[in-house]
Amino acid sequence: MRTDVPLLQGKRLLVKRGGITVLDIPEFEIKKGGVLSLIGPNGSGKSTLLLTLSCLLKLSKGELIFNGQKIDNRRSELDYRRQIAVVFQDPLLFDATVLENVASGLKIRGLDKRERSRIAEEYLERLGIAHLARRSASKLSGGEAQRTSIARAFAVRPAILFLDEPFSALDPPTHEALISDLNRLLQDTDTTAVMATHDQMDALRLSDRIAVLQKGTIAQAGSAEVVMNHPINEFVASFVGMDTVLSGTVRDILERDRMIIAVGNREIEAVGNLSQGEKVLCFIRPENVTLSTDSPEDPSSARNNFSGRIIRIAPHGLFYRIDLNCGFDLISYITRTSLDLMELREGQRVKVSFKATAVHVIRKSA
Ligand SMILES: Nc1ncnc2c1ncn2[C@@H]1O[C@H](COP(=O)(O)OP(=O)(O)OP(=O)(O)O)[C@@H](O)[C@H]1O
């Protein structure tokens, strides 16, 4: 269950590595319940923050407060470390059986052998690896090893589970299966978790809160919905996949928080309540831009309809990225099936639509 009580608080967190400041965060907190993902580009400090919060990396300045108690000496640090668990990209298993590995955290916590085996077997079962219990951990595939390391972490029923890029070393099907099992397990056990990941889709699937890191600071933190759909600046917008960025000026204010924004010599309708004449940036997700080859007179329920020319078509993961010009540049993602059905080609004119609610508008900083 989520509550607003901070389970872990960080104040004035400053971390230096190799003499250089790599983390500088005035305030940070983890609330009880739910999953927080730390996302950001390479080198932005995701792992450093995760290691700092799990007391595996020393603070150069600042303090951590767990359940209202400062972690400020060896004893409080050990006590805290006993109540958390960390899963790394590399599973770091002991040269022992899978069962012994999963039970190892329980041994350190003083449980007797029978109880250790009972709990370890339960988590092996939950992770779908009960059949591997007696196998040597050195003879596991990457996916099996990561499942073992996750079972070991859950087995101690941590107050906070820290996951550092837990899926990066896995192939796509293994990744897919593990993420869905982990999601279920996190919910079934109501575990509070923090995950560092460079993959925003993983973050969206697992977490209810997201913090975006930029050069060792938090650029934005909030609910996944707010961060993904209402980024506060251009950096966050581009990181969360709002690939189209348009500069404009608020031309008119309409009823019900609608605005008309002039973008070059075109006008687009958006939702928001800024003032007339304000300079703004408009962000649009490619998946919210639809294309059709119907005649331009055909009605669309979207408020923004333009005729656009296809500049470029390029494969983009499971989709195709279509770069368009509608008097302003716009990006759309479509499936291979849609591409084939519409027989799209570069140079062609198409009808381009997007809803007013698909346009996220922020004030342009001076
Ligand atoms: N062991 C280290 N010694 C010195 N500097 C380090 C060390 N590890 C990381 N750094 C530096 O700290 C900064 C943050 O790195 P960190 O690994 O936390 O970022 P990240 O967001 O997790 O990146 P990635 O996605 O590449 O793992 C970077 O500038 C990096 O070069």
TrEMBL record:
Q: Which GO terms describe its molecular function?
A: ATP binding; ATP hydrolysis activity
The source organism is Syntrophus gentianae
Q: Where is the ABC transporter domain?
A: 8-240
Pfam annotation, one family: ABC_tran
Q: Which GO terms describe its biological process?
A: molybdate ion transport
Give the superkingdom in one word: Bacteria
Query: Which InterPro entries has this protein been placed in?
Result: AAA+_ATPase, ABC_SmlMolc_Importer, ABC_transporter-like_ATP-bd, Mo/tungstate-bd_C_term_dom, Mop_domain, P-loop_NTPase, Transp-assoc_OB_typ1
Q: Where does the signal peptide begin and end? A: none
Tell me the protein's name. Tungstate transport system ATP-binding protein
Listed A to Z, the keywords are:
ATP-binding, Molybdenum, Nucleotide-binding, Transport
Q: Which residues form the Mop domain?
A: 299-363
